[in-house]
Amino acid sequence: MSIINIENLKKFFGKLPVLDGINLSVPQGTMLALLGPNGAGKTTTIKILSTLLKPDGGRAIVNGYDVTCDPRGVRRSIGLTGQYAAIDEFLTGKENLELFGMLYHMHKKDIKRRIPELLERFELTNAASRAVRTYSGGMRRKLDLAACIIASPPVVFLDEPTTGLDPRSRLATWEIIREMMRSQTTILLTTQQLEEADQLANNIAFINEGKIIAEGTSDDLKLRVGGRRLEILLKDNKNAVTASQILEINNIKFNIENRAVNIPTNGNISSLTNILALMEKNSIQIDTFSLRKPTLDDVFMYYTGHKTKDFKN
User: Fold this and answer.
1) Are residues 177 and 262 in the same domain?
2) Residue 13 is part of which domain span?
3) Could you tell me which of 93, 5, 110 has the C-alpha nearest to residue 48?
4) How far is CA 36 from the centre of its chain?
5) Could you tell me if 25 and 173 lie in one domain?
6) Most buried in the list 87, 172, 228, 249, measured by CB within 10 Å?
7) Do 204 and 238 share a domain, yes or no?
8) According to the model, what pLDDT value does residue 200 have?
9) CATH of the domain at 241
10) Which CATH number fits the domain that encloses residue 125?
C-alpha cells in the first residue's frame, strides 16, 4: 500500500518548469530518497507534499489526503524537517518540543511522556533547559528532527536532515530513522550525502531538470551503470605508449594524463590475468590496483551529468 502517491505533478516558477510531470509512489514503512543536483526540484517536491506550495498541475496524495483539496488532513499526517532548523532560538530545547507538541494538538500527558524520550534519543537531555541560541548547529538539527517526530506522524519528509552533524551524530540519527521505518513510518528523503541514501533508502529516484530520470533500488541502479571493474594506477608514464598498445589490443582505454586504467571484469578473470602478465613482461610498473564496484556517485554522474562535488556545493 502506497502512502505517498504523485501523479504527473507540475510546478512552474514564472514560465520555468521546476517540476515537469513527475510520478512517484512510496509504500508504507519504506523510504524513498530523492536525489539530484541543485535546482533539480527536490525541495519543491517536498514543499508541495507538505502543503507549503500549491502544484500547478497533476495530483499528490499523502496518507489518503489530497494536498490541494485537503491540506489540513495532510498536515495532520506529516512531520517535516527542512534544510534549516525551524525552532525558536529564545526557547529552551524542552520548551520547543512542548510547543511542537501543542501545535500537533497532542494531549499534555503525551507531550510530557514523549519529551524525555526524544531528548535522550537525540542526546540533548543535558541541554534541555538551555536556550536554543546557545546550541551548536548540530544540536539544532537534532532538536529540529526531534520536534518533527514528536507526534509520531505516519509520514515524514526529511530535507537534508543530517546537514551539520558530525559523523557520530549522523550515525545516531540514521539509527533513529531506521527505528521510524521499523514502526511503519513512511519517509521521503532528500540528502547531499549519497552514502546516506545508500544506507537508508529502500528505493532511490534521481530527478534532473524537474523530471524523474531513473528509479530503483541502490543495487539496481548501480548495475545499470556497469559491473565490477579493476582500477589500475601506473607508477609513472615511462612505458605509457607500450601500456596503451597492450590495452588497445584488449579494447581498453588508457588515460595517459592520470596514468589510470579501468578494466571491466564481467566475471572474466583470465582476461585480467593476461593483461597483468603482459604488463609485467613489458616492465610496466603498477602503483596500485583495486577491484571496484559502481557507487551511487557513479550513478549520479551517469544520469545527471554532474560530478558529486557539484551536487554537494
Assistant:
1) no
2) 2-223
3) 5
4) 9
5) yes
6) 87
7) no
8) 95
9) 3.30.70.100
10) 3.40.50.300
Residue 298 counted as domain residue: no
pLDDT in tens, 135-183: 988 888 889 999 999 999 999 999 988 877 888 888 888 988 998 899 9
- Residue 232 dihedral angles phi and psi, to the nearest 5°: -120, 135
* pLDDT tier at 311, thresholds 50, 70, 90: very low
Residues 234 and 119 both lie in one domain: no
Q: In whole angstroms, what is the distance from residue 180 CA to residue 182 CA?
A: 5
Query: CA-CA distance, 37 to 14, in Å (whole number)?
Result: 21
Mean pLDDT across the chain, nearest whole number? 86
User: Are 128 and 88 members of one domain?
Assistant: yes
Question: Residue 87 and residue 91: Cα distance in Å, rounded?
Answer: 8
Residue with grid cell 551517469, as numbered in its chain: 302
Q: Which amino acid is at 260?
A: A
List pLDDT tens digits, range 215-228. 999 989 988 877 67
What does the angle CA 286 – CA 292 – CA 298 come to, to the nearest 5 degrees? 120
Residue-level pLDDT at 78: 96
